[in-house]
Design brief:
With about 130 residues, this protein is of the alpha+beta class. About 20% of the residues lie in helices and about 35% in strands. A hairpin with a 4-residue loop joins strand 3 and strand 4.
Length: about 130
């Protein structure tokens, strides 16, 4: 994912709110790719219920990014993602931020929580991280 000229703020680095757009883009692009469907056509939509970001290093246009995604919790109607944003130098990846992103699936009409659509659950299951007990 490329940074954009408009992502930079007055201080010459990517503005903090833009990291959340990277998270949103990465999750939804992954969902579309992994399910092979246009997620906007499903009877349920994933609304963002919670986000967080820990900034570790600054980014700036024209940085190229890679965003890692894994799933911390796959519930009945919600998915809790953990994400990491890396600056891709071509030779190396440098961690710039980590964060969380929670989708709650709701009915398109009523906006009441409903079970995660089967096509999304099937795509999500391989990304669930099982905690190691130690």
């Amino acid at each position: 994912m490329p940074t954009r000229w408009a992502d930079n703020d007055h201080y010459g680095h990517v503005n903090n709110v833009t990291y959340y757009a990277y998270f949103d883009t990465a999750v939804n692009a992954w969902l579309i790719h992994a399910t092979g469907t246009d997620i906007r056509d499903l009877p349920a939509i994933g609304i963002v219920a919670e986000t967080s970001c820990k900034f570790l290093d600054s980014l700036s246009f024209p940085d190229m990014l890679k965003v890692g995604i894994r799933i911390k919790r796959l519930g009945k109607s919600s998915i809790s993602y953990e994400l990491a944003i890396f600056r891709d130098t071509g030779d190396d990846l440098h961690l710039a931020a980590t964060g969380t992103f929670v989708h709650v699936y709701v009915d398109n009409e009523t906006r009441k929580p409903i079970p995660i659509p089967a096509v999304i659950r099937a795509a999500a299951e391989p990304l669930v991280v099982v905690p190691v007990e130690g």
